[in-house]
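User: Here's a chain of 231 residues. Predict its fold as tokens.
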Amino acid sequence: MPGQVGLHTHPLDQRDAGPRACQRKDFMVTSVCDGWMPWITPHSTWIAFESHFKIYIWIFIVESSTSRTARMGNALSLGTSIAIPLLGGTGIGLSMRDDVKTWFPTIKKPSWQPPNWLFGPVWTVLYTLMGISSWRVYSKAGLMSKPMFLYSVQLVLNFLWSPLFFKWHRLPAASADITALLGVLGLTIVEFTKVDGVAATMLYPYLAWTMFATALTYNITMNNPSSGSKE
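Assistant: Prediction complete.
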């Protein structure tokens, strides 16, 4: 009857309810036209759309913030992983400068001894590769894992060799230290391979240089028996 509200209209908008809204293709109503839902009007649909839009914006902001925080955390852990061996090795090397200039030239060395200027660049590259490699394993296995424990042990042995050799002139002890380093490093690479093959591969140059340094240390130790310790 004229003046009465139809059974299938919504009080928010009587004029646009029902099939007529579908015929006019009103905004956001066409999505339900095939299965006409008479209780949904353009007005109520817009409220629902606006609410969902705000939710989507909020989710995007939260996800973007979380992603940005994760990237910052990864960058920080990577920088720390590189800084530990690089700064540690560099600091120890700088503290040995006087001994390298005064004592080291006086001992017998083999003809295949590299020039002193080569050691700095080589160790800079090796320490950087070590840091990246350890970070990759740390990210997957965690700090308290077996691979990271072995990595930490070999790093301590690495740092200990320089003062044993250059500062205290304890050549037999330096030979024992670098032998232990070589063994632990080999185990570290084996464990790294189980977690991240790329990380293990990045330690191969370090392994090769340590093998060379081991042979060099033994040669110097045998040819300088009187330089067993620093008085």
